[in-house]
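Subject: Protein record for review, amino acid sequence with backbone structure tokens
Why sent: The fold of this protein is of interest and is recorded here as tokens.
Notation: Tokens come from a learned vocabulary of local backbone shapes, not from coordinates.
Attached in line: The record itself begins immediately under this heading.
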Amino acid sequence: MSRLAVATLLSWLATEALGVVMLRSWIVRGGIRTARQRPARPDAMSLPILAGHVGLNAAGLLCWIVFVTSAAKPAAWLGIVFMAPAIGLGISTVTIWTPYPGPGPQAPAPARTLAEREIKRALHDEALTGQLVDELLARNLVPPPQRPAGWHLRPLVPAGHGVLAIATFSLAVLSAVSAG
């Protein structure tokens, strides 16, 4: 078998390894519990999308292993056919799963609704205007939580997974084309 096909397999396995790390972290942090709360929690991961992503990638990987071991060209193309929608599903999870898979930014405090007469009164009362401005600033300019100094490698896991997925797809297409 060609070196390109083996390199693709190694890239695919590395991509899957990072995916397993993310899946494990998601499960440990209660991802399945929050996913069951959809649609009440729109920020929760969709289990069908995640299952489709994992399943299509696993099917594609199995096809690629068949291609590497037997040189069956249809298996290579079938692996690519499975990988393409898996990448699409993976990209769709990025918008929900950012930052990886920890809690998202703190939700802002609910805005205080002012009646029109209160707004008019505030425009004429300097003390009330100052109070409203202070309240607005306190609610919207909350500093982010302090992180310990140093490098944080957690964001590199999903980034590496995505980069490896695109590299794997490119290598797979090149390998399938070169196989004839």
Summary: The chain has two domains: 3-106+157-179, 107-141. The two ends are 13 Å apart (CA to CA). Helices lie at 3-28, 31-35, 47-70, 73-94, 116-124, 126-140, 156-179. Residues 107-141 form one domain.
